[in-house]
Amino acid sequence: MKLLKVFVVLFSTTLFACTQQSAPETSNYRGERLVIEAEATPGLIDAEFVLKINGQTVIRDRTEPFGGSSQSFSGSYRGQQVMARATAVQKFFSAYTMIDVFINGEHVDTLTV
Q1: pTM of the shown model
Q2: pLDDT digits (tens, 9 = 90+) for 32-70
Q3: Dist CA 105 CA 30 (whole Å)
Q4: Domains in the chain: ranges and CATH
Q5: Cα–Cα distance list, 104 to 49, 64, 70, 84, 97 (Å)
Q6: Residue 10 dihedral angles phi and psi, to the nearest 5°
Q7: Which of 10, 13, 75, 113 could be joined to 97 by an S-S link, Cβ 3.0–4.6 Å?
Q8: pLDDT tens digit sequence for 78-88
C-alpha cells in the first residue's frame, strides 16, 4: 500500500510540472524601457502561456494540445499590438522554449524559458 502511494505521488509530480519562467529581459522600444518576462505552466496535454511587460500581463493564453513546435499568441500593451511566437527547441541533452516578442510587428526581444 505504501509503495502505491509513492508511485502515485511520483507519477503526479511528473505530469504536473512547475511553472517555468524566463529571466526578466530589459529592452528599448521607441525610447521606452520595457521589462519583458514570460511564464509557461505545463498541463496534461497543453500549457498556459503568460507574457508580461513592465509587470502588466499582456498575454494569457493556452497552447494548442497538438499545435506543433511553434505557436503564436497575441495581446496588447498600451494600445499597441503585441505578438509572441513560442518555439520549442530540442537539443541533444536539453529542451527549452524560445519566445520572440514583437510590438506592432517590430521584433523587440527574444526570451528563453
Answers
A1: 0.79
A2: 999 999 998 887 788 899 999 999 999 999 988 877 788
A3: 13
A4: 18-112 (2.40.128.180)
A5: 20, 24, 20, 11, 22
A6: -65, -40
A7: 113
A8: 999 999 999 98
Report which DSSP code applies to 1: -
Q: In terms of Cα–Cα distance, which of 102, 68, 98 is closest to 86?
A: 98
Instruction: Tell me if 34 sits within 8 A of 108, measured CB to CB.
Output: yes
Residue 54 backbone phi and psi in degrees, to 5: 50, 40
| Assigned C-alpha cell, 111 | 526570451
* Single-letter residue type at 31: G
DSSP bridge pairs for 48: 41, 62
Indicate the residue type of 17. Answer: A
Q: Which one, of 21, 28, 24, lies nearest residue 47 by Cα?
A: 21
